[in-house]
Amino acid sequence: MSSDDTVLVINSGSSSIKFQVIEPDSGVARQSGLVERIGEPEGRVVLHHDGEVLEEVGRIEDHRSGLRKAAELMASVGHPLPESGIIAVGHRIVHGGSEFYEPTLVDDRVLKEISTLSDLAPLHNPANVVGIEVARDTLPDVPQVAVFDTAFFHTLPMPAATYAIDRDVAREFGIRRYGFHGTSHQYVSERAAKVLGRGTDEIDQIVLHLGNGASASAIAKGRAVDTTMGFTPLEGLVMGTRGGDIDPGVLLHLSRTAGMTVDDIDALLNRRSGLWGLSGVNDFRALTERISAGDQDAQLAYDVYVHRLRKYIGAYLIELGGVDAITFTAGVGENAASVRRDALADLEMFGIVIDDDRNENGQGERRISADSSSVAVLVVPTNEELAIARDAARLVRS
Ligand code: ADP
């Protein structure tokens, strides 16, 4: 074991690859970058290194050539991958099904299983599999570790994991609530406990991961007991382009009376709903600007977003029988003070009081509740890549 050890973390999506070279022990990210618009006419590779940003534009045929270009860019700044002390490649895998809930060393069998789970996550797992294949080719002697987004929610109690549908259908097709963003919820809940100087096993908490995708979780003494995303990452909160909860009858109606196909409905739910569907913008900063300019649609989108959030906070407060901490994380959760204020407004009777000054000022990991608040309200920046790097390092060192 050496403190110079690094882990290459790869998050491979359908048309992009995010990567970081991280020292798992110190938490330092030596390099990070992004390959995007793979397969489109104008691709882009970006590398952050020593406070500098390098960029290369041009067609990127496929994931393989994308990762190769990223490796070349790293070599050009004096850090070729084979000489970067990489002890493992950690892969973010969206769906682990019922089988995978621990960081797992990837061999041919595991790769095949992850591929088979593509039925459950057709938008994500195939791209994750490509990421593993490409990394295996690029670094054939380095162990590949799969870290699953569903893993932390493996512990959901049956009443929280079960949909009330025909049990035979559910069994045959693996229909249950899996939950996603697990790496973030786990990492943030552990940091939150540290900020409070308590063990995760001593406290009950709610974590609100509000990024482009968004989900909430209820965590009792370190164990996830409920979460808003379900069989897919479509359920629950309002997101950038996904609307979260919807009466399934709406989809039947659109199919029967509007002649929408399954693909039409898929596109509606994944890409034309949420903030974008209601206001025409999915980026929270753009939404806020429109609200300031008096845009009523943007205002309604914001109000629906906050309404759904409050509804789940209420549900989880009851499920947990009160909480010690409520923590905001991810792009919106870390930066949008108005969302934090409005999500927890008027909850004094539940012991939840935000301090406006702490909420609006300050940066990084911090407490934003008033001293009089019996529930600690926190902001904790998420770092899924570091969590994956540490999981991967732990596994290969064990
Ligand atoms: P992803 O799910 O893609 O990882 P992020 O966690 O990066 O997403 O969150 C992206 C969201 O965070 C976007 O809606 C973006 O507008 C929002 N966001 C980022 N910075 C700010 C800010 N300063 N104020 C409000 N929203 C922000």
From TrEMBL:
Cofactors required: Mg(2+); Mn(2+)
Q: Which Pfam families match?
A: Acetate_kinase
Which UniProt key words apply to this protein? Answer: ATP-binding, Cytoplasm, Kinase, Magnesium, Metal-binding, Nucleotide-binding, Transferase
Q: Which domain of life is it from?
A: Bacteria
Q: Which residues bind Mg(2+)?
A: N11, E384
Q: Does the keyword Nucleotide-binding apply?
A: yes
Which HAMAP family is this protein grouped with?
Acetate_kinase
Function, as annotated: Catalyzes the formation of acetyl phosphate from acetate and ATP. Can also catalyze the reverse reaction.
**By what name is this protein known?**
Acetate kinase
